[in-house]
C-alpha cells in the first residue's frame, strides 16, 4: 500500500485537528502508544512498514485490528517525526466531557497550552500522579495532535483527556464537582510546600496551569480559590511548565496519601 | 555582516561540540539566555538582525560587548531553531571541574543523557531546586549544545555545569566530597517519599539519572549507595526524565529545609 492509497490518505488527513474531530479518530505513532491503544481497546487499524512489521510481530499479531503493510514512503508520510518508527495506528478519539467525571479527586487543567510536547508530558505526569483527568481549555494545542500523543507515552489511553472551550466555565463545573481550584503562578505569595503543610491539598483539587510564555490570564486566575507557586531556591526565574505541573500534581498525591484520604474517592477508577 | 563573513563563520562553527571545546566558547540564543550571560559576565560578543536589534535595544546597549549587526540570512545561519529570534550571543565556555566543588549539598548527575531538551530542563530544575552543580558523564549529549542551552532558560549561567568522562569515577569523587549517592530506577523497591520520611535525604546527596530509553547501566547503579524510584500511582509505565529528576531534586530540597539543615553547607554559593 503506497502513500497515495485511499486508506493511507484518510489516515494522513488525521494530522489535522479538524479532521480528527470530523472522523472521530487520531493517530498514535510507535510501539509504546500503539500498545497502549491495544490495551485500552481503542485501536482501529495499524499501518506498518516491512522492517517495523518484523520488529513488532508479536504486537501486531495480538492487536486484533486490520494490519496494513505499507511502503516505507507511506509509513514516512503517516509519521510526523524526522525519524519515523514505521508503525502508526489509528485510534478512536475519546469524547470525554467534564460532566462525566464523578467526584474527581485530582484534575490537571491546562489553560491555553501552547507547546504540544509539554502538554503530552503533563498528561503523562498526571497519569503517574494518579489524577482522574486532564482538561485542555482556552485556545491552545489540540491534545490529540502527533507530538502531544508521542510525549504522553501512552497515557492518553490511561485517563480521560478532555477538551473544553471555556476556562471560566470549566472552573465553575469542577468546583461544582467538589474540587478546590488552585491556580499556579510564579508570582504567588504562598508555595505548594506551605499549602501541603497546612493541609490545603488534602481534599479534591483541580490545578490550573497557564501557558509557558504568559502564565494564566488574570480573569482565569481570579476565578480560582487560591494561587500557589513552586518554590525556587536558586536563581532560575521559573520552571519548565511540564516540570512545574508535575511538582504540583505530586504535592497533591503526597498530601492525599499522608492525610490517609486515598481510596475514598475516584482513585484508580477506569472509564 | 553576511553569513560568509569571517566572524559569523567562526561563530557558526560553535554548533559543533569539538569546536566549542577548541575555542572555549559556546552559543546562546534568544534574549533570555543572552541576558543571563550578560548578568554572569560571560558574554563575549553578540550577533543580531536588524529587527531583533530594535526589539532588544536596551539589552544590547547594556551588554558591554561588541554588537555585530548581521543580515537576516546570517542570523538564521547562526540559529539552530526553525524560527530564529535573530539574537545569538557567544559566551565563554565554563571549565568547571568536580574537584572544584566545596562541600556540595545537592548535585544532579546525568549519565549518558541522550535528549538535549531534557538535559537542559534538568539544568533548569536543578538551578530552581538550589542544587550546587549538574554533572554530565558517560557518552551522551554535550550540555553546551544549542538545544540544551535553550532548554535551560539561562540556568547554564547560574550553577556549574560540569562534564566528566567516567561515571564510576564521578561517583567516587562525589562520595569523597561527602555526598550520599542515590541512583534512580523505576524498578527500585523504595520510593523517594519513603526515603524522605526516613530522613535519608536530609544530608548531602548526589542523584544519578540515567538516559530515558535505557535507564542507568548496572555497573553505575551498583556503585550508588541506594536506589530509589518516583512513586507511580496511575497506569503510566514511567515518567519523563526531566520530570522524574525534578521530583527527586525537589524531594531533596524539601527534606533539607524540613530538617533545618539548609544554609549550613554550600547553599547559595556562587562560582
From TrEMBL, chains A, B:
It holds the Pfam family MRM3-like_sub_bind. SMART domains: SpoU_sub_bind. GO terms for molecular function: methyltransferase activity. GO terms for biological process: methylation. The keyword Oxidoreductase does not apply. InterPro entries: Alpha/beta_knot_MTases, MRM3-like_sub_bind, Ribosomal_eL30-like_sf, rRNA_Methyltransferase, SpoU_MeTrfase, SpoU_subst-bd, tRNA_m1G_MTases_N. Keywords: Methyltransferase, Transferase. Residues 27-97 form the RNA 2-O ribose methyltransferase substrate binding domain. It comes from the Bacteria. The keyword NADP does not apply. Belongs to the class IV-like SAM-binding methyltransferase superfamily. RNA methyltransferase TrmH family. This is RNA methyltransferase. It comes from Frankia umida.
Amino acid at each position: 500500500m503506497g502513500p497515495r492509497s485511499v486508506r493511507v490518505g484518510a489516515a494522513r488527513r488525521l494530522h489535522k485537528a479538524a479532521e480528527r474531530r470530523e472522523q472521530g479518530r487520531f493517530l498514535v505513532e510507535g510501539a509504546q502508544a500503539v500498545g497502549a491503544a491495544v490495551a485500552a481497546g481503542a485501536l482501529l487499524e495499524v499501518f506498518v512498514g516491512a522492517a517495523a512489521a518484523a520488529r513488532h510481530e508479536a504486537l501486531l499479531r495480538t492487536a486484533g485490528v486490520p494490519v496494513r503493510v505499507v511502503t516505507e514512503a507511506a509509513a514516512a508520510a503517516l509519521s510526523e517525526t524526522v525519524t519515523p518508527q514505521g508503525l502508526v495506528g489509528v485510534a478512536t478519539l475519546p469524547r470525554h466531557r467534564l460532566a462525566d467525571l464523578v467526584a474527581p479527586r485530582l484534575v490537571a487543567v491546562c489553560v491555553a497550552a501552547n507547546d504540544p510536547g509539554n502538554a503530552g508530558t503533563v498528561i503523562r505526569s498526571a497519569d503517574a500522579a494518579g489524577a482522574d483527568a486532564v482538561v485542555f481549555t482556552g485556545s491552545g494545542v489540540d491534545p490529540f495532535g502527533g507530538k502531544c500523543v508521542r510525549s504522553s507515552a501512552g497515557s492518553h489511553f490511561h485517563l480521560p483527556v478532555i477538551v473544553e472551550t471555556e476556562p471560566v466555565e470549566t472552573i465553575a463545573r469542577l468546583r461544582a464537582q467538589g474540587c478546590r481550584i488552585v491556580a499556579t503562578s510564579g508570582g504567588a505569595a504562598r508555595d505548594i510546600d506551605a499549602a501541603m503543610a497546612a493541609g490545603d491539598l488534602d481534599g479534591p483539587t483541580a490545578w490550573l496551569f497557564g501557558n509557558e510564555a504568559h502564565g494564566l490570564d488574570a480573569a482565569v486566575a481570579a476565578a480560582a480559590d487560591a494561587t500557589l507557586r513552586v518554590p525556587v531556591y536558586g536563581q532560575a526565574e521559573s520552571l519548565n511548565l511540564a516540570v512545574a505541573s508535575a511538582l504540583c500534581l505530586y504535592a497533591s498525591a503526597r498530601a492525599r496519601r499522608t492525610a490517609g484520604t486515598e481510596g475514598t474517592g475516584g482513585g484508580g477508577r477506569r472509564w
